[in-house]
Amino acid sequence: MNDPAHSDRHAAEPGKRTDTTLPIVVYALFLAGIVSGGLTALVGVVMAYVYRGEGPAWLDDHYRFLIRTFWIGVLYFGVSGVLTLVLIGFLTWLLAVLWLVIRCVKGIKRLQEHRAPDDVTTWLF
């Protein structure tokens, strides 16, 4: 992954600023989904689908990262919901919340640096 062509494609061009407000809003909606039961996360993923492909490659990688975060989160929180029937689901739900917070914070940090997420395809962080 130390390919210079790859890293240039996934970083902002020097002297050129891209508006990152919308992806930050989507990250915030995902975090608010923790207390809204996922409703705001649903709004956020719709926004990510609508706006992907309209910016530089590094910004599109954030939208892809957000979309993957939503769907992986649906899986993690869904499994946690089923596991609450055997009481371990409360622990897995807390782990899923921690996973979501870490993923969003890392994404926002990279977004503020005008760089793509470290690994868009990961299931973890």
How does this structure look, described?
With 125 residues, the protein is mainly alpha-helical. Helix content is 69%, strand content 0%. The protein contains five helices and no strands. Helix 3 packs antiparallel against helix 4 and helix 4 (57-83) runs antiparallel to helix 5 (89-112). The two termini are 17 Å apart.
Quickly describe the structure.
This protein has 125 residues and is mainly α.
Helix-strand layout with pairing:
Elements: H1 4-9, H2 21-36, H3 39-51, H4 57-83, H5 89-112
Helix pairs in contact: 2-3, 2-4, 2-5, 3-4, 4-5
Sequence of secondary-structure elements: HHHHH
End-to-end CA span: 17 Å
Biggest sheet layout: none
* DSSP E strands, number: 0
Choose one word for the global shape. Answer: elongated
By DSSP (H or I, 4+ residues per run), the number of helices equals: 5
β content, as a range? Answer: under 5%
The percentage helix is 55-70%
Domain count: the total is 1
Keywords:
membrane, 125 residues, mainly alpha
